[in-house]
TrEMBL record:
<dbReference type="GO" id="GO:0061598">
    <property type="term" value="F:molybdopterin adenylyltransferase activity"/>
</dbReference>
<dbReference type="InterPro" id="IPR008284">
    <property type="entry name" value="MoCF_biosynth_CS"/>
</dbReference>
<dbReference type="GO" id="GO:0006777">
    <property type="term" value="P:Mo-molybdopterin cofactor biosynthetic process"/>
</dbReference>
<dbReference type="InterPro" id="IPR051920">
    <property type="entry name" value="MPT_Adenylyltrnsfr/MoaC-Rel"/>
</dbReference>
<comment type="function">
    <text>Catalyzes the adenylation of molybdopterin as part of the biosynthesis of the molybdenum-cofactor.</text>
</comment>
<feature type="domain" description="MoaB/Mog">
    <location>
        <begin position="103"/>
        <end position="248"/>
    </location>
</feature>
<dbReference type="InterPro" id="IPR036425">
    <property type="entry name" value="MoaB/Mog-like_dom_sf"/>
</dbReference>
<keyword id="KW-0501">Molybdenum cofactor biosynthesis</keyword>
<dbReference type="InterPro" id="IPR001453">
    <property type="entry name" value="MoaB/Mog_dom"/>
</dbReference>
<protein>
    <recommendedName>
        <fullName>Molybdopterin adenylyltransferase</fullName>
        <ecNumber>2.7.7.75</ecNumber>
    </recommendedName>
</protein>
<comment type="pathway">
    <text>Cofactor biosynthesis; molybdopterin biosynthesis.</text>
</comment>
<dbReference type="Pfam" id="PF00994">
    <property type="entry name" value="MoCF_biosynth"/>
</dbReference>
Amino acid sequence: MEASLLVAAPLPLAAGQRVAVLTADNALFTPRLVAAGRLPRLAVGMTLTPPAGPALMIVGVASVPGQDEIPAGRLYTAKALEAGVLPAGQTPFAVTKKGLALAWVTLSDKGSQGLRADAAGPAIAETCAASLPLALAQGHLIPDEPAELRALLLDLAVTQGFDLIVTTGGTGLSPRDTTPEATLGVIEKRLPGFETAMLLASLAKTPHAMLSRATAGTVGRAIVINVPGSPKAVRETLAAVMAAIPHGLDKLRGDPSDCGQG
């Protein structure tokens, strides 16, 4: 897959610097690269590699509304993977993806107000990185608001193109624990096997695990998993399903192989 992009003038980039990749030119964004023709559908975690200059990784996707003579378009936020200079003119970028894009979402009223440090979200990233090939991992911290979670899950899965989305917190019986209900409001295919495996793993540690209402399922081409709110429970429940995640994602993308093989 290839993306042809225009650079108005030689563009020096530092490692980690952000640059806008636009489907339609818009002077509000700088520095920027503009599509020369139709772009393939890009998603977070994809790498754009030019013949010369620094490679870029897509780390965000958003829609840009039209205004006056500027047409509506799509904004891809890219990160330079190394320092270098992109040459002026039209450049073909090879589009590849090596590894999975992970998004974790911590549900916490106190955490979202800065009143509590978030340890569970980083535990998701660490646990997944130890078992899965990750191209990108991003975290979000929001209050226990079901509408906000539903909107975020849809954005992460459908617009951004994350492969795996793991939420932590809000799976119990407290009045503000609404993560499973919000998740069920957007998932398209439920994964009861994931839910059972996580429950059994937790029950082996504590009988209180039977109070968890964590769910799992798919949204678009992403797998969404709820886990409890403690770092210990994050590691225990994810360990129970980690081996099935790569195969599940392959099937979501149309892999025709027999699930019974191997």
